[in-house]
Design goal:
alpha/beta, single chain, Rossmann fold, elongated, disordered C terminus, seven-stranded mixed beta sheet, two-stranded antiparallel ribbon, about 325 residues
Length: about 325
């Protein structure tokens, strides 16, 4: 006598072997869950896709290498060109180079090197703002800051910028290389080497306290360990050579330091007796053991605080463009 068929459908099973070699049954639905979890895990491990940024959102951006994206900077921390004293020759040279680049003419990558606190990074930001304000299409020149530790991601940034309608100054502040750091090779390839090279709409500006972007210990280490020490050192020194424009910043004189202080005082309308201002400013620089634009600005902040004057550094496009 036949048994009645059950109305319930059985779940198909797949035979698999256990460790002991015996057959076990795994439902298809359970196997599907495992595959789904594997797929989701692979999606999390995969690098995020770099979406095209909205370059009209701001005039300046910060490159975030981890997510390969540009973060807009609505308000850039910068000084007006008129407040940068004692660096007139470097200022004029960089402005001229930047203007040519903004007009689509040939221009050089620039390395601003030398004494600390003499306005290297301030000049780059002020030059960008001034040229960007007086161009045929204001806002078409963008400033992108890349951090020193993200230099290896430069090729990805170049690929993102290459096909855009804007022109870019890619800026790296306090650039130098130490020890066994080999990320300088990425910068070297972007500057002049590589198959693609630097995009036509991108120029690189960097600041450094070192003229050759490498420490003395690093150079001596290369000489002692390389098969051909001269060639190894030459490879790293040649990185600086790939910046066509070198601008040297040196320690300022006492008169230049006082001119910086007086310029700040006039700009912010700080009431001060000239003789007393001179004496206090020189005493301040003596206690700091240096004379520089940074030291002058620190003195002005102290002076304004004592006199109850608020300091507000705001960029006036029309005034600064006319002054440039």
């Amino acid at each position: 006598m036949r048994k009645p068929k059950s109305s319930l459908k059985r779940t198909p099973a797949i035979r698999t072997k256990s460790r002991a070699g015996s057959a076990t049954k795994t439902p298809v639905s359970a196997e599907g869950d495992v595959l789904t979890r594997i797929a989701r895990t692979l999606e999390r491990l995969a690098p995020p896709s770099s979406a095209q940024p909205d370059l009209s959102a701001a005039d300046a951006f910060i490159w975030q290498a981890d997510g390969q994206r540009l973060m807009p900077v609505p308000n850039v921390n910068r000084m007006e060109l008129a407040l940068l004293k004692g660096i007139e020759r470097m200022r004029d040279t960089l402005i001229e180079n930047t203007e040519r680049f903004a007009r689509g003419l040939p221009a050089n990558n620039a390395l601003l090197w030398g004494a600390r606190g003499m306005g290297k990074s301030s000049l780059v930001k002020a030059a960008h703002a001034s040229v960007n304000a007086q161009g045929k299409k204001p806002g078409s020149l963008k400033l992108i800051e890349i951090h020193r530790e993200d230099i290896e991601s430069l090729p990805a940034l170049m690929a993102m910028l290459r096909e855009t309608p804007y022109r870019f100054i890619v800026f790296c502040d306090d650039l130098s290389f130490d020890g066994d750091d080999t990320s300088y090779k990425s910068l070297k390839a972007v500057l002049e080497g590589g198959i693609e090279g630097r995009p036509e709409n991108v120029i690189l500006y960097a600041t450094s306290n070192r003229r050759h972007l490498m420490s003395r210990d690093m150079m001596e280490n290369e000489r002692s360990t390389a098969i051909n020490p001269g060639e190894a050192v030459e490879e790293k020194v040649s990185l600086s050579d790939r910046f066509g424009l070198w601008l040297g910043f040196h320690k300022c004189s006492q008169d230049e330091f006082l001119a910086m202080v007086e310029g700040y005082v006039r700009h912010f309308g700080i009431a001060a007796d000239p003789e007393e201002l001179r004496r206090e400013a020189l005493e301040w620089s003596t206690t700091r053991g240096a004379r520089s634009g940074r030291v002058a600005w620190q003195f002005i902040q102290d002076l304004a605080g004592r006199k109850g004057v608020r300091l507000s550094v705001k960029f006036d496009r029309r005034r600064d463009a006319a002054g440039a």
